Amino acid sequence: MRPRLNSLAARLLLASALLLPLFLGTTGAYLERSHRLSIEAAQAERLQLQLRALLAQAEFEDALELPQRLIEGRLAQVNSGIYAFVTDATGAPQWVSPSALQLDPAAVLAGIPPLASGGQDISRFQDLQRASLQVLWQTDRGAEVPLRFTVLETTAPIEAEVSQYRRRLLLWLGGSGLLLLGCQVAILVWGLRPLRELAADIGRIESGASTSLERVYPREVRDLTGNLNTLLKGEEQRRERVRNTMADLAHSLKTPLAVIRSANPDQADYPALVGEQTDRMEQIVAWQLQRTASGSHRLLQRVPVAPVAQRLRDSLAKVYSLQAPVIELQVESGCHFRGDERDLLEIMGNLMDNACKYGGNHVRIRAEGAGDLTITIEDNGPGVAPALRAAILERGFRADSRGGGHGLGLSVAADIAASYQGRLSIDSSELGGALIRVQFAQPG
User: Fold this and answer.
1) Pairing mode, strands 93-96 and 82-87
2) How many CB atoms are closer than 10 A to CB 8?
3) Secondary-structure class of domain 12-161 per CATH
4) Where are the alpha helices (DSSP H) in 218-369?
5) Which of 226, 365, 387, 424 could form a disulfide with 414 if both were Cys (CB 3.0 to 4.6 A apart)?
6) pLDDT tens for residues 68-109?
7) Domain 302-440, what architecture?
């Protein structure tokens, strides 16, 4: 099993440590080659100047003559590193510089291709750079004598300079590499600091010193921190909901228990009264359990709204087949809900059921927004009086005051929407009845 690097900093540093030598080595090789080519080009240019200088000093009548004191003094020194030859058409030496007396002309001049008059050749012979110039010398008597001037210079100074340049290059590039690695370490320490702060903040939440992630984090981790805050807030709301449910359950059961306790068992309607109050208690318990369970979210799940709305419309069309309501769907493409699909079903199911039950025969459902989601459900019924719009959403409002049914649908929808940091509001519809709007500010 291959070992893993579980540290982001270690991975980035390892990648830098592997890539930097490759990049700097390639750069160093390219710079060294460019430097060598420039030095060799300068040497070739110097050799061509030496050829022209020799040509300017040469005299030819019956034989080639060159002065003993040449412009380039090193040609008069044995093994000075610069050498000169003048050969005829057959390649036989006509003149050899004193510096080249220990060299074999045939070996040194071998490999030079034939040249036309005025032609030049730059080539390499072992550790010597070689330059040749072919001329057609016209004597005062009108004779034309072909001569080839050749100058050679050792490449040892070039190799020494390249070697010194390589050492300097290695020093500078190596130092730059170490400096870059140091900068990389500093950048990693600075760049990963928000993650360390996030870990510290989570530790404070675990210890109870904080209840949420309140720091402003970088954009790259903002979705993560937003979802964590949603999870933390949902958990806090769940605990609060459990406490409220227990209190509400105890309070709600007092009335049916008191009715049963105060009833006379000898009366004829006692069994019916007990049955009625038992059904009431079962409804209360089921409702409170439903409220408790409705706060569990599955974060990061993207639920398409259109299939859910279509499924609910088909179900309600069967339930209210006698009324034959017209249920109109207007759901934007790409519209989705971030959370548990069951919560979306509960919200839309309760609101659509209320619209079909208490509205007229026309219900319109709209959903819009690929990011922040807005769902509106309208009907052409009597609507909701403005004085009751806030009251029917308040926790603890008695269902008895709402007329038929238990009046729990809006409360369920409002509680679930609130657990997702959503908001439910009531308004008047263009259809003439009520308009229920649910808005969610969802993480990206």
Assistant:
1) antiparallel
2) 12
3) alpha beta
4) 219-262, 270-293, 305-319, 341-358
5) 424
6) 888 888 888 888 889 999 988 888 888 989 988 888 888 888
7) 2-Layer Sandwich (3.30)
